[in-house]
Amino acid sequence: MAQAHQKQSTFPPYELLYHPGIPGRGEFIRLAFEAAGVPYTDVANDSKDGYGIVQKTCMNDGTESSDGNPPVFSPPALRVPGAGKTGKVLVISQTPNILFYLGDKLGLVPEDDEDAKFHVNQIALTALDLNNEVHDTHHPIAVMQYYEEQKPEAVKKARDVRENRIPKFYSYFERTLKGNEAGQGKYLVGGKLTYADLTVWQVVDGIKFAFPRESEALEKTFPQLMVAFYRGVREEKGVKEYLGSGRRLKYSMGVFRHYPELDRQD
Amino acid sequence: MAQAHQKQSTFPPYELLYHPGIPGRGEFIRLAFEAAGVPYTDVANDSKDGYGIVQKTCMNDGTESSDGNPPVFSPPALRVPGAGKTGKVLVISQTPNILFYLGDKLGLVPEDDEDAKFHVNQIALTALDLNNEVHDTHHPIAVMQYYEEQKPEAVKKARDVRENRIPKFYSYFERTLKGNEAGQGKYLVGGKLTYADLTVWQVVDGIKFAFPRESEALEKTFPQLMVAFYRGVREEKGVKEYLGSGRRLKYSMGVFRHYPELDRQD
């Protein structure tokens, strides 16, 4: 439970169901709660038998996740007691789906602006596509095999992602920042923090960890994104507190991994 | 323009912006309009200079797509004159974002059931993830290089996707169908057609084209998905008319490609 952020509120007891010990795709959901200052339980990390609940709900072979909700393909999932039809438990999955669901409720989309909500969503979806492509730099062939079994392919894939894909995505984020006058270079959509900002920030941060040399070289080309925006999001109240807390997990063997041989070599 | 489906309505003049000549990711949007019987313009295929408009809107290097909307990372995009703030043109992108936007408006989500809308969305997102993984079977290393330049890696990647990934996704769809009593094995969420059904159907259909031998072998394991559901969606009124029309483009060099060496060999 994010104790530091508990406050009087009408929020339901949100539960994040994800693997323990890694930021992974769960991190996009954590950042949304933390930036909004809304309490949530990180089930696998917050209790001893938490991962058993995650596995039972999200990784079973049955025809439902739990409580009459459809199966979950893969964590993360969000469990919300009392939010479902006629007061039941609601379970939804897929990272961008959870973010879209929470966006309104956590105040992480512009209010009363339907257009802007879909613009926020398209940017978050694009950042999550980049997240997947970066994952594939160390697992280009088979997700269930070890990195060491696909290292020659990983070197090739990482080079393409670093040299072609990351710049294409970063150019899009840079241009979006520049085109959003209301955001003054700090926000991608509108004049305050949205989950698009958090999602893009997390991917840029992960890429800085995975490819520090490439990231350093890219700063000159994308200063709005990689310097002004990146630093600005890090200083947002809820984000700053979270990043300084023990709840922020270290990158290790998840989506973002640092293998020096996959980074820029010159 | 989908002439066969024109009817009196209050729908705005929806425009699909996508590459010409291939089904690709645009096909998920086409299927939604066609199944709903709602008119739309397929800009690049319907007029001689249409692709110029797509390129100018979706593939420019500027800080907006058009009409004050943020840039588009990549087609498809949806252009809706009159739908934006204060009567402006709205442009949104990212396939699942467009489907979520249209779901309500085209009657392709259960009515008055917020939970079900997020369940529809999570299933569509998962099918689109599988779509991406199948794309990567012929382009595991670099999307801008030729297949022939990455064929050894493609053979390895395709084997993993066929043997491990497709069965994992198909099991999820099969179990979702079985768990949804209201759908009687025909629909993934609720008791009538949603864009989750259309999106899953398109991916199963594309995989049948790309990997016919593997698909045939999988039918025994996933009969609900690959036989009952697959045939049922194909017989839905709008879908059936569309598939028999010239508007349904043939698979060729897009996401779904048939290279016999990437299919099951025994």
From TrEMBL, chains A, B:
Source species, domain of life: Eukaryota
An annotated Gene Ontology molecular function: glutathione transferase activity
Any one of the GO BP annotations: glutathione metabolic process
Matches recorded under InterPro entries: Glutathione-S-Trfase_C-like (IPR010987), Glutathione-S-Trfase_C_sf (IPR036282), Glutathione_S-Trfase_N (IPR004045), GST_C (IPR004046), GST_superfamily (IPR050213), Thioredoxin-like_sf (IPR036249)
Stated name of the protein: Glutathione S-transferase, C-terminal domain
Segments forming domain GST C-terminal: 113-262
Domain GST N-terminal: 13-110
UniProt cross-references to Gene3D superfamilies, sorted A to Z: 1.20.1050.10, Glutaredoxin
